[in-house]
Design brief:
Helix content: 25-40%
Low-confidence stretches: 1-34, 257-266
Mean pLDDT: 82
Number of strands: 9
Strand order of the largest sheet: 8-1-9
Number of helices: 8
Shape: globular
CATH topology: Alpha-Beta Plaits
Order of helices and strands: HEHEEHEEHEEHHEHEH
CATH class: Alpha Beta
């Protein structure tokens, strides 16, 4: 069993019950049948090579025509602190005494995405090439994707008259044109590279083998939560960078198991409990 916090358990349990009631067919459709996840397009981020310039943030903003965050300058120094409806990726800084590391935040494009499993109208879908895409025309604004995502990625446009859920698309529109992701192509240090997921895993493992003292001995995202298309190398423990310990089982599998446990209890136990209360009340003359 993977190790998850009480908060994460409540989240996935809620997904299991709500998802079973609203969209029972979506969980098994998260990964297209017959696809090899290693053929998905993905990215590898090496935190030891990142200088925190936020060029990736601005490349994303320029390509997707999003608005600079309040306080940002709209150029290379535009550095918002959190993801938002207008900021789909950014660099954050972890510091503890003399130790520090940058870390990139964005959608992880999970192999088996919880947001896809949880969406009751299939506004979020897993494409055959890897990106988790969003169709605003289908979205009903329930924000269930925000509730189910273990990485706290999707953001809602609270201030818009007709709001949408926004997140990194892995530049799916660029990939369809044969281009790479905007953030990876502009990275000045090579901290971020894009390509076929299997090749990225091989590259990451090659770096670990060549310089074992440089890194934590793991490729985050290779197996975590069933695997992600955005993966990480770091010299700092991943949990310190805000990357949760989720085990290797996909989140939708956890939610389905929760649904199998809790939903029958609710559907069968609820009426039995009410019937028992009714019988006792009649016997005692309460009704």
């Amino acid at each position: 069993m993977p190790s998850i916090s009480r908060r994460d358990f409540i989240k996935v349990a809620g997904l299991g019950i709500g998802g079973a009631l609203l969209a029972p067919a979506t969980a098994s459709a998260a990964t297209p049948t017959g696809d090899d996840p290693n053929n998905y397009i993905g990215m590898l981020y090496d935190a030891t090579m990142c200088v925190g310039c936020n060029a990736c943030t601005n490349a994303c903003r320029q390509w997707n025509s999003t608005t600079a965050e309040p306080g940002g300058e709209g150029g290379i120094y535009d550095a918002p602190r959190e993801l938002s409806g207008d900021t789909w990726t950014l660099i954050q800084l972890y510091r503890e005494e003399e130790n520090y590391s940058f870390v990139k935040r964005q959608c992880m494009h999970c192999v088996d995405p919880a947001c896809v499993s949880g969406c009751p109208v299939q506004a979020l879908q897993k494409s055959s090439t890897g990106p988790v895409t969003y169709d605003a025309g289908r979205c009903i604004g329930c924000r269930y994707c925000m509730y189910t995502c273990p990485f706290d990625v999707p953001r809602f446009e609270w201030e818009e008259v007709i709001p949408k859920v926004q997140k990194c698309t892995l530049c799916n529109d660029r990939l369809e044109k044969g281009l790479g992701t905007a953030c990876a192509e502009i990275c000045p240090t090579g901290a971020l590279v894009w390509g076929r997921r299997g090749d990225l895993i091989a590259e990451a493992e090659s770096r670990l083998a060549a310089e074992p003292d440089r890194y934590v001995g793991k490729v985050y995202g290779k197996d975590d939560a069933g695997g992600t298309s955005v993966m990480y190398l770091s010299a700092t423990p991943f949990e310190n960078l805000g990357l949760p310990s989720l085990g290797n089982e996909p989140i939708p599998a956890l939610s389905e198991r929760s649904a199998n446990i809790f939903l029958p209890t609710i559907l069968i136990g609820g009426p039995l409990l009410l019937a028992s209360i009714r019988a006792i009340s009649k016997r005692e003359g309460w009704a």
